[in-house]
């Protein structure tokens, strides 16, 4: 009897003024009958910010003194997850493109932040590209989830925080006097990353060697175009106590990079060639390892998968960064106990960080015990 009565009221409820509501589409229903269960508890906000670099930063293809970023927040039940998009100009995103993309992100269909796979698959489907913008949502969501369960991500993933690597410190291409000064300032770091790929390569390395004999790693940023020249350089760099060479030749030269890797006395690492998960398969046999960056991978969800895939293919793994605040750096650092090398100096290169998080102490990545990505606002 009571079941029949409920059915009666239910049936009456979906007939209004003789019109069956089923004749209207979902958007009409959502607009006309705001339904509490349909309004998301997650609120995404974002704002542009510009990072000031301590030194002019020069690599093989460009020079700059600032980096545009966008800072995101996802609020949920009194907790706030922080995220960040960093847009070095050569990657094609900008304040404008990231703000436009984030304005399209509609979380109203999601009420549970733990639906990470669904939410981030939706964000990824909004539009092609926009990798840094997507990362800024991914990082904020991961931070939020960690805060809800009150655990740092490295704990959730089962990583050992005592196994974090040392980080390299990047020395940009510059005049010998400036390079010497930068090397002296980088005394704390156990390994220096040298940007090569111009006609001053040997001079750069010799200048550094006039100040220190600590190990180097080299990032050519696709700057060598001849594989025999590249191999000669790598043999010479090995004599100069170099550990590995990142993106020695243009990413399009797959055969050249594969030949170089096969013959190289040092490991080669694909960076520009390896953006997202499917690129790890393509890099297998072409490079000895991959450089994972959150701004390329669309964030932590895919970065974690890339790490697992590369490991299963017996490839080396490096975790890198752009110039970023301690927000995105601390997020990337959560993965660092599982990598061979870290290049997480991005927050050290800027003078206006607004977060306190992962520290570099005595050259090593040191994770905090704070939940999520492990940061506080300064
Ligand atoms: Mg690189």
Give an overview of the whole structure.
There is one protein chain. Helices cover 36% and strands 22% of the residues. The protein has 2 domains: 26-149, Enolase-like, domain 1 (2-Layer Sandwich), CATH 3.30.390.10; 155-377, TIM Barrel. The longest helix is centred in the middle third of the chain and has 19 residues, at 131-149. The chain is built from 14 helices and 17 strands. The protein is globular, with a radius of gyration of 24 Å. The chain has helices spanning 2-13, 26-32, 95-104, 116-125, 131-149, 153-157, 176-185, 201-209, 227-239, 254-263, 277-283, 294-297, 300-312, 326-333; strands at residues 15-16, 19-20, 43-58, 63-76, 79-86, 168-171, 191-195, 216-219, 242-246, 268-270, 289-292, 316-319, 341-342, 355-356, 359-361, 364-366, 376-377. It is α/β, with parallel strands linked by helices and 378 residues long. The protein binds magnesium ion. The site of magnesium ion has 6 residues, from loops.
CATH H-level homologous superfamily name of the largest domain: Enolase-like C-terminal domain
Q: Main sheet, how many strands, which sense, barrel?
A: 8 strands, parallel
Outline: globular
Give the structural class: alpha/beta
Percent strand equals 15-25%
Return Rg in Å: 24 Å
Bound compounds, each kind once, are: magnesium ion
Question: How are the SSEs ordered, and which strands pair?
Answer:
Elements: H1 2-13, E1 15-16, E2 19-20, H2 26-32, E3 43-58, E4 63-76, E5 79-86, H3 95-104, H4 116-125, H5 131-149, H6 153-157, E6 168-171, H7 176-185, E7 191-195, H8 201-209, E8 216-219, H9 227-239, E9 242-246, H10 254-263, E10 268-270, H11 277-283, E11 289-292, H12 294-297, H13 300-312, E12 316-319, H14 326-333, E13 341-342, E14 355-356, E15 359-361, E16 364-366, E17 376-377
The protein binds magnesium ion.
Magnesium ion is lined by residues 219, 221, 246-247, 271, 291.
